[in-house]
Amino acid sequence: MHKDILIGTTPAYHTYPDPSEGPAGGGGKHPGLVVIHEIWGLVPHIKDVADRFAAQGYSVVAPNLFHTLALEGRADQSLLAQMQQQETRDEAQKTMREVFAPVRSPEFGAQALAMLVQCVDYLAQDSGVDAEHIGVTGFCFGGTYSFALAAADPRIKAAVPFYGQPLQEEKIKNLHCPILAFYGAHDTALADSLPALKDAMQKEGKGFTAVMYPDTGHAFFNDTNERMYNAQDAADAWNKTLAFFAKNLKWEK
To answer: How many Å apart are CA 46 and CA 50, to the nearest integer?
Structure first.
C-alpha cells in the first residue's frame, strides 16, 4: 500500500505493508525506513526501491528533498547521457551546474537534514511503526545524507549508504548506529576516500562495514541506468542490505 503525503512542506512517498496481511514484529508494528533519493530526485526508480522494502515488511518514507528545485525537463538520466557525448558535453555540464548549484550550499544541507529528521518524526509517530527500530538508506546524494542522518538523529538504528560521500571526521563521533556502506571500485574518488573513512570510524569505535565491488562503479544499483547498472552486484548488495536491516532493526519477514 502507498500514498503521497506531505511531511511539513516536503512531498514524500509513503509505502507500507498491507495491514490485512497479519501482525508484524514489534508487537504488531513494522520497522520504519527512510529512503533517500539520488541526485535526480524522487523519480519512479526510488519509489520502486521503496516499494521493494515495503514488500519485505518495512514502512518506508521517501521524501522529495529537491521539491523546491526546478528539475523537471532540465535534469534527468538524459542529461547524464548528454554529458557522456563530446558534442553535447559542454552544454550538459553547464545545465548540471546551474540546476544543482543550490544543493552545494550549506543552507541547503541544513534544510535537507532538517527535512530528514522530520521524516523520522513522521515514522516514529505512525501507529503502524515500531519507533524503536527505524533505519535509513540512500543512493549517491542519498548515500551522503544517509551518513548525515545517522550522525544527526539517534533514533536511526541502522544505516546503509550506497556510494555516498564520507561523513566529516568531526561528525563521526556522533554516530549511534552500525553502518553498512557499498562502493564500486571504478568510482575512484569514493574508493580513494575509503581508507581514511575506515580509519576514522575505527578510531571512534564505530561499527562500520564497507563492501567494495571490484568490477563496477557509481550508481551500480540503479536498474534504470543502463550504462552503470550491474545486476549481479546490485542483487548481492540488496541481499546484504536486507540481512543487515533484519539484524539491526530486529525484524524477520
So the answer is: 6
